[in-house]
Amino acid sequence: MGIRVDLPECGRWFAAERFAFNLPPPLDPPDPGRPLATRALSTDNVAVRASEADPEHMSLSRLLAVAGHVVALRRQRFMGSHGLTPHGLAVLAYLEQGYALTQRELARRCGVAPSTLNHTVEHLARSGWIVRCRDDSDRRLVRLALTESGHRHLRQVQDAADRQIEPLLDHLAPADEAAVRRFLLDTVTRLQEDDAGPDDPRF
Which terms in the Gene Ontology molecular function aspect does this entry carry (predicted)? Predict the structure, then answer.
C-alpha cells in the first residue's frame, strides 16, 4: 500500500495531526525483546496510520480541529510579523472590550500563569499599545488599559489578517457559505455555553 504524501502550504497535515492529537508514530511499536536491527517495519501499518492523518479520512470533529489549527497557525504567523504573539493578541482583544484588568485577571482569562505574561505586557507597553494605571479604589493594584494606538493597531492587524483568510472562502457558493456560517456559529455557541469562563473576544 502506498502512502499519500500531500502536505499543502501551511497545513502540513500529517505532521500537524500527529502533533495536535498525539497520534502514535507511523511505525509498529518496538518489541523490547528483539534486537533493534531485526525489528521489522510494517508498510501496511505505516499506510494505515498515514491515512488516519489524511484530511479525507478524518472524522468531522477531528477535521474541524485540524482546520482551526491550520488557520490559527497562518493567522499567528501574520500577527507575529506585526509584533503580536498569540498572548499579546489575546491581551489586546480582552482590553478592547473596555476592561481595565490586572495582569492576574488577564492571565486567568488567557489560561496561563501571571508570570507568563510578563514579557508580553512589557512589549505591549513599550510599543505604546497598553498603559499601566493605579486602581482608583485600591492603589496597590495596577491595571492595564488599551491605548488609542493599541486599538488602532489591533483593528488594522485583525482586518488585514481577515483579508488574508478571505481568499480561502472565495470558492464557496452562497448556499454553502450560509451552511458553514450556521454550523460555525452553532459550534461557537455550544462551546461558550460549556465554558464557565468569560466570553472569548474576537481574535
Answer: DNA binding; DNA-binding transcription factor activity
